[in-house]
Amino acid sequence: xxxxxxxxxxxxxxxxxxxxxxxxxxxxxxxxxxxxxxxxxxxxxxxxxxxxxxxxxxxxxxxxxxxxxxxxxxxxxxxxxxxxxxxxxxxxxxxxxxxxxxxxxxxxxxxxxxxxxxxxxxxxxxxxxxxxxxxxxxxxxxxxxxxxxxxxxxxxxxxxxxxxx
Length: 165
Prior knowledge:
This protein has three helices and ten strands. About 25% of the residues lie in helices and about 35% in strands. By secondary structure, the chain is α+β, with helices and mostly antiparallel strands.
């Protein structure tokens, strides 16, 4: 049995320069920079999409949006909690936190909004401790790795969106 990454690399007419498959689910994304095409992986199935099909991308922590960009306002970024710096970021994060504690996170999701009617959102789960009462501390390596990966892939897609216009 071949891995999803192997299946992606074997696709004709798709040069996967960058691939990310979630360790928590069979979801992911691959980018062909030259063709300006994405490959969305969902439950192991592969869906090729032109970059133009992505209308926005965001990072969610426990269902709260902490970063967002869309094709209508590519530089319109929102930040809260861990992404925003300083006291104002802590204040905003505290106001938006879904629980009384802003030091812990249960779930980090990278979401791509697409123009596909049947499945408009493509979610990639980077951290899932939903089963835990407490979640993970924002200072933990697990959280930092999940957020770093989300920011990297969000940035890659946004930079391609910006370069395309």
